[in-house]
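Look at a sample.

——
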Amino acid sequence: MKALRIHELGGPEVLRHEEAPEPELGPGSRVSWSSRRYRLPRMMEGLARSKGDVDALVAVLARDRSSAHRYLLIAETLLAAGRAGDATEWAERGLAAFPERMDPRLLDFVCDRYGEAGRHEEAVRLAWGALEASPGLEAYQRLAQVSSRAGLWESRRERARDVLRRGSAAARGGRDRSELVAALLWEGDPEEAWREAQEGGCRRDLWLELAGRRERDHPADALEVYRAQIEPAIRHGDNHTYAGAIEWLEKVQPIFDRLGQEEDFVELVRDIRDRHRAKRNLVKRLDERGWGRRAAGGPGDARSAGKALHS
């Protein structure tokens, strides 16, 4: 690597004293911040840019290779200068330097360069390795993109889904298919996503997204998910308003109505009142909506309680 000193860049008068650069930093180096370490490289970069000297600029940037991001900066600099081959080589060095924690941006950069160069199978191998190393939605999306470009996605999709199915559970130590569910939703396959969530579980945000997608055509499924949110909202809610619990009750009531299960909604509210009777603010909020007060009333009270929200 070229040993670059400031005078080689034709530095201004203020730099005539030729400060010696800080020692180079390689992969794994610990960087301690200092004004000199920050100031001098910035000056040298500025000089190299002003002269339009790409090799000099790369030499300056390459003095700090302590992170994958630094390799990406060099690769992007070379690509902007029209030197795609050199850019790819530097990006590959970055991946090799940090094999245990590959930077996703560096991975994308290399895959894109491979694709532009017609090296599709190499891009697929790289993306596949990244998926196996870290099973997740982002890695799945990358593999789908590069495999589609190579015309290979259809033959690899199911295997990729298997990687997510195994990887999600292993990473979370139990029953969870969140990454696979997220990937299926991304691919526009909510039915399969629902099936996987039912079989293997998933994160709360994904359950809610699934419920939102199923609410129109499968209201009972959506009701199951929404109803499960009520008790946690009561436990963790604001003692003064219980706004979250009330919002979920407002969410489920029309679905009970659609299913012809008004009585079940009344029973749900009655059960909440019975178990949380000490939460006076919650009971007050239920009373304000006319929910459950008629539990001991005469005929017709259950129906009117179930429809109180719409009156």
User: Anything to note?
Assistant: The mean pLDDT is 85. The two ends are 79 Å apart (CA to CA). DSSP finds 17 helices and no strands in the chain. Residues 255 and 261 are 8 Å apart (CA to CA).
